[in-house]
Structures are given as C-alpha cells and as structure tokens.
Amino acid sequence: MPSTYGLIDGNSFYCSAERAFAPVLRGAAVVVLSNNDGCAIARTAEAKALGIKMGDPWHLIRERRELRDVRWFSSNYPLYGDMSRRVYQVLAERLPRVEPYSIDEMFLDLDVPGDLRRLCQELREVVRRIAKIPTCVGWGPTKTIAKLANGIAKDHPELDGLCDLTDPLVRAGWYERLGIGGVWGIGRRTEEKLAQLGIRSIADFLALDPRMARDLLTVVGGRVQEELRGVSCLPLQLMAAPRKGLAVTRSFGRPVLTWRDMREAVAAYAARAAEKLRAEGMEACHMQVFLHTNPHDGSTWYSAQRSARIEPTSDTLALIGEAMRLLPPLWRDGFAYAKAGIMLTDLVPARQQARMFQTRDPVRSAKTMAALDAVNERFGRGTLRPLATGITRSWGTRQQKLSQRYTTRIEEIMRATAL
To answer: How many CB atoms lie within 10 A of CB 286?
Structure first.
C-alpha cells in the first residue's frame, strides 16, 4: 500500500465542465440542475454567494429578480462523464496508480520522489490546462486523511487549493478544530449518536477507546478511527469490485398516459441497462420492472412491479424482450405515470460458450452487440438502436437548458470560424 495517498477533486465539477467550453461563463454564476430540470445539484462560488442552496427547486427560484443573471444548465451527463475520463487520463500518465472514486474525485498514489507539494501543484495545473477543470488536492498517510485534507483545501481559500496532512502535529491541530461529521464514513446519524456522548470533534473521536468505537459504530467505525490515526486500512483499488446489480430508472419529462409511450420508455431503459452490462463484462440473471404515478401531485397513486429469473444475458434485444414480457401485467389505463425503471440483479461474468438449455446463440449475440456498441461508440450513444426504444421519445427527460455534448457527439463538436 502507498505510504502517502492523495485525493484530487474537481471544483463544482459539473459547472466547471460547462465553463470549459464557454469562456463567457467564467466569473458568472452557474447552476446545473438535476434530471428533468428539477433542482440545483451543482453551483459555482458566485451562485452560492447569491444564496442558491443545494436542492433548491428551479421552478421556485428561477424568477427571483436577484437571480436574473444566473446561467442555468440541464444535466449533461455524457459531457461530464467524458470530462471525468480526461482528468483520469491526465493523472494516470503522471502517477503510478489512480483510483476513480466518483465522477469528480480520484484517489492518488503519491509514493513518488520529489517534493509532494510541488507535485500536487503541478497536477492541479496540468489538469486545469489540459482537461480545463479546476481542482483541489489533499494528501496524507491514509485515504480517510487524504479526503479530509481535500475538504480542508476546498473550504479554506488561503491554502490555495492544497492541504498536506502528512505531519501528525499538523493533523492534531486540525482535528481539534474540525467536527466529526466532516469525516468520510461518518454519516449524520452516526454524528448524532456520538454527539449524545459528548464526542463532537475529530480529536474527541480519537480519544474514544477503540473497543468502544467498534461497539458503537461496528467495524466500520473502528476502521475510520484507525485511518484517522494514520494506519492505512483502505488500499487503492485499481479495479472496481464487480457490482451485484444495476438499475436504469427515470422520471418522465411529462406524465406518460399511453401504453405505447410506456412500452418505448421501458424498452429504452432495458437497452441502456444492456449497454452497462456489456461495458463491465457482466450478464444478468434476474430482472425487475416497475412503474408508478407521482406521489406528490395529488393524483391517484398507483405503483406496481414484477420480477423474474431470466436466461443470463447482456444482449440488448434479449433484455428488451424480457422487459416486454414483464411489463404488460403492470399497466393500468387511466393513470398518469411519472416514473418507470429496470433493475438487474444476480450479475455474473459474461460467457460466450453455450450453457445448458440455452435458447440463444452466444457467439452470434456477442458479434451483434459488438457491432452495435462499435457504431454507438464512434458516432454517439443512440445512433443505432432498436426501433422498440422509440424515435421521437416524447416521454424523455425534460432538458430545457441542455448544453452541447462537445466531446461525444460529432455533430455538436465546437467549430472554429474565421474572423
């Protein structure tokens, strides 16, 4: 395991991705909205200064006079995902190991010769120059300390985006000042439980007897305490652990009233789930389909789901077929449906050799799906798709403020024009 871990985190990552292709946004208040343009999920410092809070509903705040100059954007996940990939690529070329933790955070192996502060500053600069994303970097002897250091770097502008917690004396000073709720792995309920015992700062938590910490917070709490003491318990993961399930669920951009629209939507979700399976080299053995109305708008509530074992597969056409078999018994005329989804569980590694009682040709399926994925990878997701998933997709997610997918759609790439 490395003796020094780092964590690099993109500042207001979604907003920074939007700014990367629109210099006019630099210095402006920018907000990115959740699916269906529901609420604020990312804000620049300028937007925060105007009082916009995480989770503020867009339909309630967009008409406020003091917010008239705010630039609002619908979530553009293809763009954000590709920008995250670019950040990873920049880091992986310069460090022994990099572990993506989330779309905007990556753990770093900093066991490299030279001055760590200078290295981390250079990493920030090269990510900003090449990937156009501003970042903060924190580092220390464990992952938990590195994540804490990153939070300090973000919250204290005087540190210029860098925080070094490798020195035990420096850590002790911060531990006295910081609340235990800011530690990775300590949730709100755990924080409340500890507060009832008079444990409010990180220093208070470290003073707790290790056996009591484990009794109160199970083995996870004991591990957090050890990590905060500088004992590494969480190694870098170069490969993500195989997932046990995945889901594709969406709230509709408008209520779905017809069977045709519902059928198209669920088929599209099954197709997306198949893409995710193939990307991870997995097949699903169990499927659940669900749908429901809006529980908050006063309409009649209706919810239904159905699940079944399926033949192990990641074939788009096969999964659409299974979904279409499960969906009809769930449908009821006369309801305004707000959401539907596909959940796949009991995932297993993909195999191309025949299984007993298999009804599909695995080799033919693999070739067909490889061709489908190759076309969509080259020309953009959805370029080639089954007709069952719809053409116009009037039920799709509402995105009134969507920016261009500058890096993943050839027709939306930026064009240079002569002056």
So the answer is: 16
